[in-house]
Specification:
Number of strands: 18
Helix content: 25-40%
Number of helices: 13
Strand content: 15-25%
Strand order of the largest sheet: 1-5-6-11-10-9-7-8
Shape: elongated
Length: 403
C-alpha cells in the first residue's frame, strides 16, 4: 500500500516547497500588521464544538472518537473555537486588542473535490477585543495584504461583504422564525459560491436598515487604503457564531469561479466558554483553494531546493571536500554533500533531480587551490570562486525565478 488515506496529501520536498512558499507569504502579510503566531492542540473535547459552531460540521464532518478514558475527542475542524477557548481561559491577563494568527492543519470528513480535502492547512487571523468598524476594516485589509504577498492583483479577486445583522432584518421581514434562521443561513452558504451583486429589491431593503450606513463607512475606510469591496446580500458564512460583518473573497477567473476564503465578526463566541463577552473578528484561509488560485493565475514561482550547492567529491579528495563544505556553510549557504555516486555525470544528474541550482566538483586541484568552479545547472554558466567567497555568491546569485 503506497497511497495516502483518501482526502489527505503526502508532501514530497517539491510539494513542501510550495506549501512553505504559501505559508511564508501569509506570515509576512499578517506580521506586517502586528499579528503574533499562536497555536492550540489538534485534539479538542467534542463539546468545544457542540452548539457553538455548526450542526453540520459537528454531526457530519468531524473526526470524532472516544479515547481510553471514555471521553469524546475531536480532531479540530477549524480554529476559531480553540482561539475563543484560549482567550476565555486568560481573558483577564491578556492585553487587548489581541492580534493572533496561526497556520495549522485541520480535519473534516467530507467528499474530496476541487478546493476541498479531508486534511487541509489554513491561515487563521483574529483581531480580538475591538468592536469598532476600524477592526472590521483591518481584517479585510489584512486579507487583501495576504493576496498581495501571494502575487495577486486586485482584479484577480473580489471581496464580497454582507452582515448577519442585515440577514436577520431580511429574515424578520419575510417572517422566518428565529429558531429556523441558522439552518436558513447554512443553506445560503451552501449555494453556488460564485455570488451575485445586490439586486434592486435587496438594495432597497438594505437602505431601510442600520447596515446601510455601516457599509457606506466601511467602504470609505477601505477605499482610502486602495481596497474595493462589493456588498452582496448572498454572503452568509455557514458557522452559527457569526454576529455581524461577514465577507468572502472570490476568484474572478472563469476557470476557478469559486469562493477562496472568508471570515467575519463573532462577538458572542468567547463568552460561551466562560465569563464576559469579548468582541472578535477574523478570517480563515485554506491552502487548497489558495494553491488552486495561484495555479489558475500562473502565480506559482519556480521553487528550487533549500540546498544552494551540490558538492561532489572526486577520487580520494572526500575528506578535503567535507572541510570545504563546512567553510561554505559557515558563510550561510546550504551545501548538500554528494554521496554514493562515483561518476561526475551521475552526481550532476542527481543534483538536477533534487532541484539544487548550483553544482561543483571537488578533487585534488580544488583542494590545492582552495577554489571551486561553481556551475549553475539551468544556464550552464560557471564561476570560479574561493571557498570563503562561495557562500556570498550562492546566497546572492540564487533568486527564485518566475515560470
Amino acid at each position: 500500500m503506497t497511497q495516502p488515506y483518501k482526502g489527505v496529501r503526502d508532501f514530497y520536498p517539491e510539494d513542501q516547497r510550495v506549501q512553505r512558499y504559501i505559508a511564508d507569504a501569509m506570515r509576512r502579510a499578517v506580521e506586517a500588521y502586528g499579528y503574533e503566531e499562536m497555536n492550540g492542540s489538534v485534539l479538542e473535547p467534542t463539546e468545544l464544538y457542540a452548539s457553538k459552531t455548526s450542526e453540520e460540521i459537528v454531526s457530519e464532518q468531524t473526526y470524532t472518537f472516544t479515547d481510553r478514558g471514555d471521553r469524546s475527542v475531536t480532531l479540530r475542524p477549524e480554529m476559531t473555537p480553540t482561539v475563543a477557548r484560549m482567550v476565555a481561559a486568560k481573558r483577564r491577563e491578556l492585553g487587548y486588542p489581541l492580534r493572533w494568527y496561526s497556520f495549522q492543519n485541520f480535519f473534516r470528513y467530507e467528499r474530496p473535490q476541487r478546493g476541498r480535502l479531508r486534511e487541509f492547512w489554513q491561515l487563521n487571523a483574529d483581531l480580538i477585543g475591538a468592536s469598532n468598524i476600524e477592526a472590521d476594516a483591518e481584517i479585510i485589509a489584512l486579507a487583501a495584504r495576504v493576496m498581495a504577498e501571494l502575487g495577486a492583483h486586485q482584479d484577480d479577486y473580489r471581496i464580497r461583504v454582507s452582515s448577519r445583522a442585515f440577514l436577520d432584518s431580511v429574515y424578520e421581514r419575510v417572517g422566518i422564525p428565529t429558531e429556523d434562521r441558522p439552518r436558513m443561513t447554512r443553506l445560503l452558504d451552501a449555494k453556488d459560491k460564485r455570488g451575485v451583486e445586490l439586486d434592486a429589491s435587496l438594495a432597497a431593503a438594505l437602505e431601510d436598515t442600520d447596515s446601510f450606513s455601516y457599509f457606506v463607512d466601511l467602504s470609505r475606510i477601505l477605499k482610502e487604503q486602495g481596497i474595493a469591496i462589493h456588498i452582496d446580500a448572498s454572503i452568509a458564512r455557514g458557522f452559527d457564531y457569526y454576529t455581524g460583518m461577514v465577507f468572502e473573497v472570490f476568484d474572478t477567473n472563469n476557470e476557478n469561479p469559486r469562493s477562496l476564503f472568508g471570515g467575519g465578526r463573532y462577538d458572542t463566541l468567547i463568552e460561551k466558554y466562560g465569563g464576559e463577552a469579548v468582541p472578535a473578528v477574523g478570517f480563515g484561509m485554506g491552502d487548497v483553494t489558495v494553491h488552486d488560485f495561484l495555479s489558475t493565475h500562473h502565480l506559482l514561482p519556480k521553487l528550487e531546493s533549500s540546498a544552494h550547492l551540490y558538492l561532489a567529491p572526486i577520487g580520494a579528495a572526500a575528506r578535503g571536500a567535507w572541510a570545504a563544505a563546512d567553510r561554505i556553510r559557515i558563510g550561510g549557504a546550504n551545501v548538500a554533500f554528494g554521496m554514493k555516486h562515483e561518476r561526475l555525470a551521475d552526481h550532476i544528474r542527481n543534483a538536477e533531480k533534487l532541484g539544487i541550482p548550483y553544482f561543483a566538483a571537488f578533487g585534488d586541484d580544488e583542494a590545492a587551490s582552495e577554489t571551486l568552479t561553481i556551475k549553475h545547472l539551468s544556464t550552464g554558466t560557471e564561476t570560479k570562486l574561493s571557498f570563503d567567497s562561495a557562500s556570498a555568491f550562492l546566497l546572492g546569485a540564487a533568486p527564485q525565478t518566475k515560470q
